[in-house]
């Protein structure tokens, strides 16, 4: 399996920082990394940004990663980018710091829109049919995550 940082770079989305970046952007598109364990298959939604109260962001890397994730989520919330995610599987989903065990290298999922959950978290509603990585650039030219139409809920 290709390291996730190399996978992002191969798709044209080099991570700002390979240690703490959770996503990357380029040319009006944003590619996020999300945890498969946080994916609701029935509703086709995945956690994009946990409410601050539900996440430990005391370590510098976690704070930097969260700040970047907030920027990405805000751009998607406002409909300023084509959003995509790679669903990654954690080696131990209960670990304080998760490590990637695996992910699919052949597809990414397009984000239709974001929505706020009752606890303040932001989830991404995904298209049910994944985008083959060889078609990502073309898809991104014709796709835009739908704007929510309300103020972004994270300060």
Question: Can you describe what's shown?
Answer:
With 155 residues, the protein is of the alpha+beta class. The protein has one domain (4-142). The chain is 21% helix and 31% strand. The protein has helices spanning 4-10, 60-77, 136-142; strands at residues 23-26, 29-35, 39-40, 45-49, 82-90, 100-103, 107-116, 122-126, 131-132. Strands 1, 2, 3, 4, 5, 6, 7, 8 and 9 form a nine-stranded mixed sheet that branches. It is globular and about 40 Å long. The chain starts with a helix and ends in a 13-residue tail after the last helix. The mean pLDDT is 91.
**Approximate helicity band:** 10-25%
Strand content: 25-35%
Structural domain count: 1
- Name the quaternary structure: single chain
What is the overall pLDDT average?
A: 91
Distance separating the two termini? 37 Å
Structural class: alpha+beta
Order of helices and strands: HEEEEHEEEEEH
Supply the number of helical segments: 3
Extended strand count: 9
Uncertain segments are none
Provide the gyration radius in Å. Answer: 14 Å
Shape: globular
Described by strand count, sense and barrel closure, the largest sheet is:
9 strands, mixed
Observed structural traits:
single chain, 155 residues, alpha+beta, nine-stranded mixed beta sheet, 3 helices, globular
Briefly summarize what is shown:
With 155 residues, the protein is of the alpha+beta class. The chain has helices spanning 4-10, 60-77, 136-142, and strands spanning 23-26, 29-35, 39-40, 45-49, 82-90, 100-103, 107-116, 122-126, 131-132.
